[in-house]
Amino acid sequence: MEKSNNPYDAALVRLNTYIAEQNMRVSTVREMVLEQVCLLPQPFTADQLAKACQAERISVGTVYNALSLFLSAQILHATNRQRGRAATEYELITGVKNHMQIICQKCGRVSDIHDKAIDRLIQTRKYSNFNLQHYSLFVYGECKHCRRLKKE
After folding, report:
1. CB count in 10 Å sphere of residue 58
2. Residue 43: how many CB atoms within 10 A of its CB?
3. Would strands 44-45 and 86-92 be described as parallel, antiparallel, or unpaired?
4. Is 63 in contact with 49 (CB distance < 8 Å)?
5. Is the same domain home to 117 and 139?
6. Which of 3, 12, 20, 117 is most buried when burial is the number of CB atoms within 10 A of its CB?
7. What are the pLDDT digits (tens) for 104-118?
8. 96 with 112: CB under 8 angstroms?
9. Cβ count near 27 (within 10 Å)
10. What is the CATH number of the domain that holds 114?
C-alpha cells in the first residue's frame, strides 16, 4: 500500500483500520470531525475543535466521542497542560514521522526539537519481535523562562 504525505489520508486509513478491528460502524460524521482535526493548528483543545465543527452542525458530544475514539485509535496524542488553567491539548500523530517535543510543565510551552543523536539511537535500536515504523517523543521539564522566574 502506498503511503500518503497528507495527514488526513494517513489518519483516515488508521481510523478505518481501527474501526474494522473493533467491529464498529463507519461514520461520515467521524470523518468530518477528523477532517477538522487535520485543518486545525496543532496542538488544539476540544473547545477549538468543537468551534470548528459548529459550521458542520456537529454536536459537542459527538466531538468528544470522536476525540476519545481518535485517542484509542492512536491518531491523536493528548497532553494535560497548564496555560492559565488546566487544559487537555490534542495533537495529530498519524502521518507524522519521528516527532519530538519538549514541554514545560509550568507554563505549557511546547517546542518541536530535532535531535540527530536521539533519532539515530532510536532508528538503529533493535527490538525483538518488533518492527519500528515511527516514534513520538515528549520530554517534560521546565523551560528557561520559568526557571528564570523561579530565581527572581
Report:
1. 19
2. 21
3. antiparallel
4. yes
5. yes
6. 12
7. 888 878 888 888 999
8. no
9. 15
10. 3.30.1490.190
Length of the chain: 152
* The pTM of the whole model exceeds 0.85: no
pLDDT less than 50: residues of the chain: 1-4
The pLDDT value recorded for residue 81 is 66
Domain count, the chain: 2
Contacts of range 57-63, beta carbons closer than 8 Å, 24 or more positions apart: 58/29, 58/32, 58/33, 62/29, 62/33, 63/33
Query: What tens digit of pLDDT does each residue of 4-29 get?
Result: 458 899 899 999 999 999 999 999 99
Of 82, 79, 45, the closest CA to residue 64 belongs to 45
- What strands, in cross-sheet order, belong to the sheet with 44-45? 44-45, 86-92, 76-82
For residue 9 the three cell numbers come to 489520508
